[in-house]
């Protein structure tokens, strides 16, 4: 299955990398984490369509440098949107800090989908498209000598 994803993905930009990180996480750490995740899962880095995270990280220097260096987009989502996405590895610790129990996995899934966000008086519905798959669940990285901690997840747009 991974070979198929690698072959298909290398010809099309269908992978969205969800990123969660502590303040001050370096671009180098984020790049190394992405490289390791893609190597371990036999995914083609040239299939990355862009990066996704929570709104509060939209000005994070390491992320902005990564996007500029890779010439790729950064999609950001508010915590109330991310908190409505069903993910395999929610974290209550993260939830208490940022208002959603998932950043990397939920952001990757939202970015890879053509999700619809409908808000009525009391009901909020997030529908992540059926043509989306979480290819790599969240992986947490830190390296001695590089500032920060980063969480990476990868979702694929199937259509």
Automatic annotation (TrEMBL):
Transmembrane segments: none annotated. It holds the Pfam family CbiG_C. InterPro entries: CobE/GbiG_C, CobE/GbiG_C_sf, Precorrin_MeTrfase. Residues 15-155 form the CobE/GbiG C-terminal domain. This is Cobalamin biosynthesis protein CbiG. It comes from Brasilonema octagenarum UFV-OR1.
């Amino acid at each position: 299955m991974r070979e198929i994803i690698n072959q298909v993905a290398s010809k099309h930009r269908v992978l969205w990398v969800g990123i969660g990180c502590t303040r001050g996480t370096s671009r180098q750490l984020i790049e190394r984490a992405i490289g390791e995740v893609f190597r371990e899962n036999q995914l083609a880095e040239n299939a990355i369509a862009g990066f996704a995270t929570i709104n509060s990280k939209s000005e994070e220097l390491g992320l902005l440098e990564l996007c500029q260096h890779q010439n790729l987009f950064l999609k950001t989502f508010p915590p109330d949107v991310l908190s409505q996405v069903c993910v395999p590895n929610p974290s209550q610790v993260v939830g208490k800090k940022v208002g959603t129990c998932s950043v990397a996995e939920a952001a990757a899934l939202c970015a890879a989908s053509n999700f619809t966000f409908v808000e009525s008086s009391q009901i909020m519905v997030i529908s992540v498209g059926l043509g989306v798959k979480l290819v790599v669940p969240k992986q947490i990285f830190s390296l001695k000598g590089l500032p920060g901690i980063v969480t990476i997840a990868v979702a694929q747009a199937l259509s």
